[in-house]
Every structure is written in structure tokens, then in C-alpha cells.
Design a protein that fits this description.
Helices cover 17% and strands 33% of the residues.
């Protein structure tokens, strides 16, 4: 199973937060635009299929869900709530939760449902961080994800600019403050931060466009050589470095609309056409959809592989009726 993603964040001149992400898959996997109103009751099952953790949404949620347990399942992969908390789930195939006692499952949260839970209940990254310290998790087998055990890690943003990454590695909960605002896939997040020390040469300043070398007078034909040392591959490692580069030097726009345009240009750098890299059984990973989130205004933009343009969705439009809503995207 392959399920790659790139999540990143930029801010405008007034420190407002905009969150972009891509989702890559080997084939069209059903995705749904979903709205959960305040008061929606979320119910979970235990390891043996008995009624488990139940909670009620304190906030309205606009998100993208995907099935994991069954075709009727709605697990949040990407989304935000009306308090300005934003969330992405990214592939992390070494995920492993803490072993639980049998009696703990009644109040434990299936790891695949962490997005539903957090967006329903919390308004800030700090609240999520504190709640995770006492909320038991377990990794159910997911039939629609090749019977994998919730192979995911997670990134949270809020409109104050805070960002954390959440991983369960070797049975240990790891919560990282994330100054980069970037998340891709494995290895563990701390490894990616260490790897950035190999890229101290990165800058957005073009180098000299003329020089003398080998008895030749050399003249660069145009500008753009500042990016010559960026990784060009689409591995999780290469994408992480590129995402840090582009978000570090992103234009600080004066308006929200311009900031979203800048974000869309950055996300184009992570768009993967079909058949560019081909793995086993001639399978090719491609960008199934890309999303842009405006945390301050509650706007979500989605572009699927078959679309040239983004479709805009507004939390405020759904809040008028405040009824559960679902629409298939892919």
C-alpha cells in the first residue's frame, strides 16, 4: 500500500495561516467532502466490536473523509473546524500504538479517528497536545487499507500559528513542536529535522551568473540557479526539504486571496502526474487531490486529479443549514 502526502503551511503579512496538502495514491480511492455540525455524535467501537468511546462535536467541521473500516466509514484525512484548528493525516508505515489492557478499550480512540476527535473537540494546538497525554489510542486493522494497522502520523495547525506533529513510534506517543510547518512521511519526524542540517547551503539568492572556468568565460543563460541544490525526487525525504524551502521563502501576501494564490503555486511543486515514477507491478503514485485551507476565514479549496481548477467550499455556507453533509470528490 502506498499513500504519500505533503502538508505545509505559509503565513501572510499579518501572520494569518494557510495550510496546503496533497494526497498521493496508486489508484482512485474514494474521498468525500464532509461537513459535521456542532452537536454531531461520534461513536466508536472497541477491539471486539462493542460500543466504545462516544463524544459530541463542540465545533463545526469541514473536511475530507475516506473509508477505512468499510465503505460506509468516514475517517477524517484532512480538514478544519470553525475555531481555526486544521489537521492532516499522512502515511507513516512504522506507526505503533501503546499496548492497552482489555478494560481500557472502552474509552480508547481508534488511531484512524484522531482527526474526527480533535476537530470535534478542540480549538487550538495546545488543547490537542494536552488531551493527547491522557487519551488512550489503539490501532485497528483497516480492511480497506490492505488490513494495515493505522499506518499514519498527523499534523495540526491553528490560526495562531502553532503547529505540532503527532506520531506513535515503537509504542510511544511522540508530540513534536514543528517550527517548519511541514510534514511528509517516514522516517520519524525527528529524523527529518536532523536531515535539514545537510542543507545549510539552501538560499533563494541566485549565485553568480558569470565566471571564468577552464579557460572559458561562462555566462548563465538565465536566473534560477538558487534551486539547483534542492532535491528533485518525490521521496518523503526530498519532498520534506523542498517544502521547507518553499515555505521559508514564500511571499508574505497583503491579502488572504493573494496568499491562497501563492499557496496554490507552491502546492503545484508537489503535484505528481501519473506514470512519472513506476514501481512494482507497473503501479504509479499520483496526486489524487490537493487542498488549500484558509484557517482564518474557514475556506477549503479542493482540486482533484481530473480538474484544472480548485473548487471553493466555505464553512459559513454549511453553517446556515448546520446539517450533516457528504459529497463524493473521487
Amino acid at each position: 500500500m502506498m499513500f504519500a502526502c505533503t502538508s505545509l503551511r505559509i503565513q501572510d503579512a499579518y501572520q494569518r495561516v494557510y495550510h496546503g496538502r496533497t494526497l498521493e495514491f496508486l489508484t482512485d480511492y474514494p474521498s468525500y467532502l464532509t461537513y459535521y455540525p456542532t452537536g454531531f455524535i461520534f461513536e466508536n467501537l472497541t477491539l471486539d466490536g462493542q460500543p466504545g468511546l462516544k463524544y459530541t462535536a463542540k465545533y463545526n467541521i469541514l473536511c475530507i473523509t475516506m473509508p477505512a473500516f468499510s465503505l460506509d466509514d468516514r475517517s477524517v484525512i484532512e480538514g478544519m473546524n470553525n475555531a481555526g484548528l486544521s489537521f492532516s493525516a499522512n502515511m507513516y508505515d512504522i506507526s505503533e500504538t501503546v499496548a492497552l489492557k482489555q478494560e481500557e478499550y472502552a474509552q480508547a480512540l481508534p488511531l484512524i479517528k484522531i482527526g474526527n476527535w480533535a476537530l470535534a473537540r478542540f480549538q487550538s494546538v495546545d488543547e490537542v497536545k494536552q488531551a493527547l497525554l491522557t487519551q488512550p489510542m489503539w490501532s485497528p486493522t483497516l480492511p480497506l487499507l490492505e488490513n494495515s494497522r493505522s499506518p499514519l502520523h498527523f499534523i495540526f495547525y491553528d490560526k495562531k500559528g502553532q503547529c505540532i506533529v503527532v506520531e506513535y513510534t515503537k509504542g510511544k506517543l511522540c508530540i513534536y513542536d514543528n517550527p517548519t510547518g511541514v510534514l511528509t512521511n517516514g522516517p520519524e519526524f525527528s529524523w527529518h529535522l536532523t536531515n535539514m542540517h545537510n542543507y545549510t547551503m539552501l538560499t533563494n539568492q541566485d549565485k553568480s551568473v558569470s565566471t571564468e572556468l577552464g579557460g572559458l568565460s561562462l555566462q548563465a543563460p538565465d536566473l534560477g540557479n538558487a534551486m539547483a541544490t534542492l532535491p528533485s525526487d518525490d521521496t518523503s525525504v526530498g519532498r520534506f526539504v523542498r517544502a521547507v524551502f518553499y515555505t521559508s521563502f514564500a511571499l508574505k501576501a497583503e491579502t488572504a486571496d493573494v496568499a491562497l494564490i501563492e499557496l496554490s503555486h507552491i502546492m503545484n511543486k508537489f503535484d505528481r502526474p501519473k506514470n512519472m515514477t513506476v514501481g512494482e507491478q507497473r503501479k504509479s503514485e499520483y496526486t489524487e487531490w490537493t487542498s488549500l485551507s484558509d484557517l482564518d476565514r474557514g475556506y477549503l479549496f479542493v482540486r482533484t486529479y481530473r480538474d484544472l481548477n480548485y473548487t471553493q467550499y466555505k464553512l459559513s455556507d454549511f453553517e446556515k443549514d448546520n446539517q450533516f453533509y457528504i459529497q463524493q470528490l473521487v
